[in-house]
Amino acid sequence: MDSQLVEEWVRGQDWKFECEGRKVALVVNNCPTQPEGANLKAINEVFLPPNTTCKTQPMDQGVIRVTKAHYHVSVMCKDIDAVEKGRATPILMFWMP
Question: How many domains does the chain fold into?
Answer without folding.
Answer: 2
